């Protein structure tokens, strides 16, 4: 088994059954796992911000920083590897918030809203999600089974 | 002796910093670091000089011709940069240790400290706030109290979390309630013990409660907002999670908009990766000996 780590503003894919993709310490960022159980392949993105318009040049250098550039990039990579759209199982975790949300610190919430919008536009649905709250999350994704687990300081649960 | 008295009584035995740190801080005059003075202080420490040259020659900065001397580095990168690298490597070598009860490894706490310093510096630039280096230093050291408080947080974690869940208070308020003192105040006491300049002590003391400061300041607000951003983004985050409040007043005082926060986040993450690489090879000599 090899452990593939997804850094912040990064995505990784795999079609090797014994691989595990993991991302650590999601705060307001979202870790999105996309799996094709027939082709046995999948990928995960750890994006930070909703929209690339804030810094188009950063979006060119690091598309996975933003939901609107990173998610399409990950999807295209998966399609190129042989994934089919009708099979995709999509799970999301992250989008935490600090206490007392005012409009300015709700990046977590907006990260999730934009995600749903992008998927909706592409006729895709989120199967399961664990978003919001004040906990930091670590997400683990097994390529063999498609199993996604979320670990926080309270314990580990399957998504 | 109650818990607070016990914690405070241990502050004097907290590690000290090399005298050079204070010399550097006091060489910062009101607005700009004094180049000649800063270089004069640094050049007497060959290890530090070597670290600075190494950082100056890192791939990140991408100079075609190598930087060979401190004065050349100053010329190319500016005194503020030299000061930041010097203060960062001194703190890295001497204070890189875990905050145990918070479940922050030495690497994670350092990552958080560097992240807050980097975001502070980015926001300071975006907002055109002048500062010679106090904000950067305070940002690097804002959570120093967590190292001292870690064992107590570990012993009383369940009580702390219960306070937060039941009374919807933030983590440092729970520390105050359960332990009698919170990590920001301990950090301030430690930096007082180091005879740091007052603006730095105040930034550390009020970093979770900028509205409580007797005199509000841009520096305190900036460190608070940068810390909030880094906690939110999960940059070096522990068992205390995101259970902290961000002050809307601090945002309003600084005139920060969502766009500026997002821009600072997007810029900082790229810089942070490079800065972390720059420090990867610098030995933690002092810390390892203890």
Protein model, in words:
The complex is a heterodimer of chains A (159) and B (290). Helix content of chain A is 23%, strand content 35%. Chain A has helices at 56-61, 67-81, 107-121; strands at residues 2-5, 10-14, 19-26, 30-36, 41-47, 89-94, 128-131, 137-142, 148-152, 155-158. Chain A is globular and about 45 Å long. The two termini of chain A are 21 Å apart. In chain A, helix 2 crosses helix 3. With 159 residues, chain A is an alpha+beta fold. Chain A has a single domain, classed as 60s Ribosomal Protein L30, Chain: A. Chain B has 290 residues and is mainly alpha-helical. Chain B folds into two domains: 15-95, no CATH class; 97-280, Hypothetical protein af1432 (Orthogonal Bundle). Chain B is built from 17 helices and no strands. In chain B, helix 12 packs antiparallel against helix 13 (198-205). Classes of the chains: A alpha+beta (159), B mainly alpha (290). At the A-B interface, loops of A face helix 14 and helix 16 of B.
